[in-house]
Design brief:
Elements: H1 2-21, H2 29-38, H3 43-77, H4 89-103, H5 105-108, H6 112-132, H7 138-161, H8 166-176, H9 185-203, H10 206-212, H11 216-221, H12 226-248, H13 254-266, H14 270-295, H15 303-325
Helix pairs in contact: 1-3, 1-14, 2-3, 3-9, 3-12, 3-13, 3-14, 4-6, 4-7, 4-8, 4-12, 6-7, 6-12, 9-12, 10-14, 13-14
């Protein structure tokens, strides 16, 4: 377990450094590092500090958030097919962002889009919690999340259908594909506090998730407060996924794929998988963000598209494995 965590941490650190050194500007490595640490008013310092550094930090934070939330959701629902978007946070956050683009709020204020996305995420969580109720079980939570996701998807399609011009529609479509291009430290500071709250909330769930592997009745007998645990899980997931979607758009499959890959290396206990998945998610998103800059550097390949291309085959494999094992 410790060796896996150390290996993932070292890999994440190496990829973070590589993310700082990859880009279309083609800057020398030595000059880039000097400009990053010493700063200044030159173009190299501007590229390193205002373009590459926030992009690398966001990839690290968002990947860790999605991986952590995915491991928690799979542990709580005891289903390897679960992912953070299952409770409707991603869809409702995307709806808030789309409304900001459609109404022009995103163009009038630089923080209009991420704040609208955060508002959408909070509204979606409130609806899910209201539908699930204080005594609803995991099945009720899933159904409420599916309902909110479907409603948010329908409203997003309606807004897209009513777009005043093709340019607004294109902007909405491209934003929904997910990207870390052109993000600044403002986006980092906007997302970091919410993500930190989400990490703390989800990090407290380890003991309860381990107890849930024995069943809800056994977990209750061991003193686990299941209604409180569900609320903490939903709020923590909403914080990390809402903040991620607000600053980077919709990036799927990280929370689904990473826990599945790491589970054989850390054992069956969900608590061991939480922080390993956080590091694994950071590794996966850093790799994907570096790849979009290398594969098609002139065509702005979207990050969400690449993660979907990687995640969809894994999802199909999980479905096949689930059917084969008769789960």
């Amino acid at each position: 377990m410790n060796r896996v965590m150390i290996a993932l941490a070292l890999l994440a650190a190496a990829l973070f450094s590589a993310s700082l050194l990859v880009g279309p500007a083609g800057l020398p490595v030595g000059d880039s590092l000097v400009a990053l640490w010493q700063g200044g008013d030159g173009p190299v310092a501007m590229v390193m500090r205002q373009i590459r550094l926030p992009r690398a930090i966001l990839a690290l934070m968002i990947g860790a958030s999605l991986g952590l939330a995915g491991a928690a959701m799979q542990g709580y629902l005891r289903n390897p097919l679960a992912e953070p978007g299952l409770i409707g946070v991603s869809g409702s956050s995307a709806l808030g962002a789309v409304l900001a683009i459609h109404t022009g709020a995103a163009a009038m204020w630089s923080l209009g889009l991420p704040l609208a996305a955060l508002g959408g995420a909070l509204a979606g969580v409130a609806l899910v919690m209201g539908l699930a109720g204080p005594r609803g079980g995991s099945l009720t939570l899933i159904l409420a999340g599916i309902a909110i996701s479907a409603l948010a998807g329908a409203l997003t399609s309606l807004v897209l259908n009513l777009s005043p011009n093709p340019f607004a529609a294109n902007e909405i479509v491209f934003w929904m594909m997910g990207s870390l291009a052109d993000r600044s430290m403002t986006h980092v500071w906007l997302a970091a506090p919410l993500m930190a709250v989400g990490w703390v909330l989800i990090g407290t769930l380890g003991r309860g998730l381990d107890a849930l592997t024995l069943g809800e009745d056994a977990a209750g007998a061991m003193g686990v407060n299941l209604p409180r645990m569900r609320i903490v899980l939903v709020l923590g997931t909403a914080c990390v996924v809402g903040a991620s979607t607000a600053v980077a758009g919709a990036i799927g499959f990280v929370g689904l794929v990473v826990p599945h890959i790491l589970r054989p290396f850390v054992g069956a206990r969900p608590s061991r998988l939480l922080w390993a998945s956080a590091l694994g998610g950071a590794v996966m998103l850093l790799v994907a963000d570096i790849a979009v800059r290398i594969i098609l550097p002139t065509q702005d390949l979207k990050l969400g598209v690449l993660t979907a291309l990687v995640g969809a085959p894994v999802f199909l494999h999980l479905i096949y494995k689930t059917r084969r094992d008769g789960i």
